[in-house]
Known about the structure:
By secondary structure, chain A is mainly β. Chain A has strands at residues 3-7, 11-12, 18-25, 35-41, 48-54, 59-61, 69-74, 79-84, 93-100, 108-111, 115-119.
Amino acid sequence: QLQLQESGPGLVKPSETLSLTCTVSGGSISSSSYYWGWIRQPPGKGLEWIGSIYYSGSTYYNPSLKSRVTISVDTSKNQFSLKLSSVTAADTAVYYCARHGPDPNNKVDYWGQGTLVTVSS
Amino acid sequence: EIVMTQSPATLSVSPGERATLSCRASQSVSSNLAWYQQKPGQAPRLLIYGASTRATGIPARFSGSGSGTEFTLTISSLQSEDFAVYYCQQYNNWPPALTFGGGTKVEIK
């Protein structure tokens, strides 16, 4: 059974960079035609896709966040990571790592449990 | 950018009754639509993809229909565990975007 687990600081100061890692177990991140992505949910609000990385390394970002987002993959550790720069209070949210695909059915079929990141000084 | 609009924002239903949730896309997404259920403190769970295909392990009381711009999630007979928030998501213009609706909260009447 595939499992995803987010890790990283729960508190980030304004203007700094938020960094999270997702560790995938029960399957290989590079073995099949899936995308590995990040989705966030501000407290009491809806879901927002941040970006995704394909098993081949291609990246796709939400245009509204593209200038601040970097997603990378470390296949040797079966992990992928999110960096979001210049954070503000508006970036406070539960951050989920997730798997979606394969093409053409890009539904999100596996989710991490989520990690709350608060932006505050 | 495709905008997904869900209605109503809140739906009050008695246990055992039918619930009908709507999702509208600002332009056609064909049948490239999924539905998710989210309970408090939990990650969303995939219910339906391809507009009408139930995901593995999802009970038959959940059904999806529609294509193009109008979609419906129906829960035929609400059980206590079904009270939650439901989101639709389009993936028609992937890449490069996945878009979620704002959600419908199904609460006990």
